[in-house]
Amino acid sequence: MHYDQTWMGSGIVGGIEAGLISLLVALLLFLLLHWLGRRHGWCHARKIGWTFLLASILTVSGDLWDLFYLNYSNLQSRPLLTAVLAGMHDPEHLGMRVLCELLGVSLGVYLGWVLSGGYRTHDVPAGHD
């Protein structure tokens, strides 16, 4: 799902901005799913997995699709290639932006896990220490 990227910079600046957006979305989603998970008895793995999936769909999927499309589609005509590239924000640094977004999602999930105290608890049943 593409979000408006017209205001973002190009190159590493755009990658960092996209990564920060992904980080914030993942952090907020993890905190929300942690709150829901406490009520329903979810383990940490379920909260982490769903958060990573949902945050990736919301923030990474548009650029990841563009990256996939440019590598595997059959763009043999110059007008078609020009039209496809015109619809993308900063196509020269698309791979770096996808990498920054995936790193942002990972870091956001990790920060949410740390802030929720996940490092202090264990998913080991009582009596099996």
Description:
With 129 residues, the chain is mainly α. It has one domain (12-115). It has five helices and no strands. The chain has helices spanning 12-40, 44-59, 61-72, 78-86, 94-115. Helix 1 packs antiparallel against helix 2 (44-59), helix 1 runs parallel beside helix 5 (94-115) and helix 3 packs antiparallel against helix 5. It is elongated.
What distinguishing features does this structure have?
mainly alpha; 68% helix; elongated; 5 helices; 129 residues
What do the pLDDT scores average to?
Answer: 84
- From the spread of the alpha carbons, the general shape counts as elongated
Give the total of domains: 1
Number of strand segments = 0
Tell me about the biggest sheet? none
How many angstroms separate the termini? 44 Å
Name the helix and strand elements from N-terminus to C-terminus, one letter apiece. HHHHH
* Helical segment count: 5
Helix content: 55-70%
Structural class: mainly alpha
Query: What fraction of residues sit in β-strands?
Result: under 5%
The whole-angstrom Rg is 18 Å
User: What are the segments in which pLDDT stays under 50 over at least 5 consecutive residues?
Assistant: none
Quick overview:
By secondary structure, the chain is mostly helical. The protein is built from five helices and no strands.
Produce the secondary structure layout.
Layout: H1 12-40, H2 44-59, H3 61-72, H4 78-86, H5 94-115
